[in-house]
Amino acid sequence: MRTRLFLLLFCALPASAVAQVTWTASGVLMVVSDEIQFGGLGDQRVTGVAVGAEIVAMPLRNTEFRGQISAGHLNSDTPATDSRGWTDIQLGGSVFATNWLAFQLGADARGYSTVVGDQRWISLSAGAEARAPLFDNAAQAVFRASFLPLVGVSNHTNPDFAVSAATGLRFQRKKLQGAVLFSLERYSFPSSSLGAHAEQVAMLSLQLGVRFPK
Amino acid sequence: MRLRLAACAAWVALAAPALVQAQANTDETLKKAVELYQELQVERALVLLRQVISPSSPFVVSSAQRVEAYKYLGAAHAILGQSDSASVYFRAAIERDPFVDLDAQAFTAVERAAFAEARQRTFGVAVRPIARTRIDPRTERMTFVLLSTHACALHAEIRDGKGAITTIFESENEGVREIQWDGLLSDGHVAPAGRYELVVRGQSHLTDHVDSARLFLDVELDRPPLEDTLPSLRAADLLPEHYPASAASIELAKGLGIAVTALAVPLAVGDNHLGTGARGLAGVMAVGGIGIGVGGFVWRRQHNEIAVNIAENTRRKAERDAKNGDIQRRNEQRVAITALVITPAAGVGP
Question: HEC profile for A121-136?
């Protein structure tokens, strides 16, 4: 009964409203570098490549909703460090205050899987993104800064400070759209008896997709 | 001062009636002479006519009265068989007014023959004064009445205030001729408002003498007022069509901004003890940013036009041209129905 009701509601959505939404579907290729400092264990670093997909919807001229999923494998670069699997799901929304400044809210669910066990990270972010036109607006320089007020790490103390920043380039030509972005997330955990604990994730991502219907 | 004014007023009060009286006396004398002439009392008429033209005449004699007196003097002498005297007086009349003529109903063939001979010996051209006239150049013409006393090559032209000449007649002529002017100048346009001069020149075929006459006239245009066209677009009315020279540097700065930000993020946001991997990725992004900046710099130098502004300026110019085209069409319609009001004038200017 519930399923039928849901289908009925979905079908009742105004078709014209759906038709006016501009969609962008992209493939994502990213290089991920995860570095960890944990007390006397020394610095640990894992690096790898992840692939994924991103869907962006623009229902209105000044709003944008984004969903991205990626997965890959991070190899150990330092001794006594386990390689791990990487899975990441991001959801976010942007509201453009002007044609060059947008405010963003986002949520991120990330999973690391190692031979020892899995660890899940969940975070919420709030930030702003500035865009500067290049090549007569065929491309845009992107500068983003976010604060992560809420970060939850399974089986571990939550970080007491987390921020992220990103910069790069977005471009579009006719239906083709893409981006090259460098981003960095920093997580600082409260000091424990084992010493200071900090973790940062750097990503260089390449996106290439198509925009439709126009 | 008051005495002088009073004296002047007294003189005007006394002299003005005397002037009118004097002309009236001349008129009466002339009228009496004509009556005597018509009653064939030619000798008595001659006495009165000579009084009229005498320099010692106490009365004021107008030009028309003098011409009339000369005419009758010539006619009287012709009747008396004094052809030389007749010719002298007739010529004096013709010289003063080339339009003077003898009415076939009032003068005999002998008189008219003497007059015709005098005309052959005297050369003059004249233009009859005009009255205020309104003409539609599309359908009507302004008529000027010209005269040459005998056969000649006659030339008539209209001159405007700047000296531009429009010839309206050039041909052989003898006697009175009506010529017509369509109100157009030599360039084919309707004569603009202003003062004009009709100049008539003639060269006698008999005596080779040259004579000329002229007539001043004012031309006014009678039509609905014309609209002014829109002025040319000023620089302030148009959008800039090219980026300033600094635009290329700004493109470069944006690319360098990406590079600098990429390098700064690991330092500013990252942890001091970490960052080896982040710095490597940031370096890749920085190189990309520099490339983008340099590319943007070169691209902007080669693509300096602001396409949107150029299109907008083109639209504004086209809009202005269209409006001016409409105004010009309306003005042409108004000009097409322009009528000329031609009035006599004095001299080359007001």
Answer: EEEEEEEEEEEEEECC
Average pLDDT of the residues in B225-254: 92
Chain B interface includes A29 (CB < 8 A): no
B194 at interface of A, judged by CB pairs closer than 8 A: no
Considering the domain boundaries, does residue A1 fall inside one? no
Specify if A3 maps to a domain: no
* CB B155, CB B202: distance < 8 Å: yes
Looking at CA atoms only, how far is residue B302 from chain A in angstroms? 11
CA-CA distance, A30 to A172, in Å (whole number)? 19
Q: What is the pLDDT of residues B11-70, one digit of tens each?
A: 444 444 444 455 568 899 999 999 999 998 989 999 999 999 988 888 889 999 999 999
Among A61, A53, A60, A109, smallest CA distance to A86 is for A109
B297 in contact with chain A, both atoms CB, cutoff 8 A: no
Give pLDDT tens digits along chain A (214 positions).
455 544 444 444 445 455 588 999 999 999 999 998 887 677 889 999 999 999 999 998 899 999 999 999 999 888 878 889 999 999 999 999 998 999 999 999 999 998 888 999 999 999 999 999 999 889 999 999 999 999 999 988 899 999 999 999 999 988 999 999 999 999 999 987 777 889 999 999 999 999 988 5
Q: How many helices and strands in chain B, by DSSP H and E? A: 8, 7
Please state the pTM of the whole predicted model. 0.59
The number of distinct structural domains making up chain A is 1
Q: Which fold has domain B125-223+339-345?
A: Immunoglobulin-like (2.60.40)
Instruction: Specify the CATH number for the domain of residue A90.
Output: 2.40.128.100
For CATH 1.25.40, the residue range(s) in chain B are 14-119
Closest by Cβ to B271, choosing from A37, A142, A204? A37
Residue A59 domain flag: yes
* CATH of region B14-119, choose from 2.60.40, 3.30.60, 1.10.287, 1.25.40: 1.25.40
How far, in Å, CA of A190 to CA of B226, rounded? 87
Q: Is the ipTM of this complex over 0.90?
A: no
Q: How is residue B181 written in tokens?
A: 């002017």
Which residue of A74, A134, A142 is the best one to mutate when testing the B interface, meaning the one whose CB has the most B CBs within 10 A? A134
Q: In which domain, by residue range, is A190 found?
A: 22-212
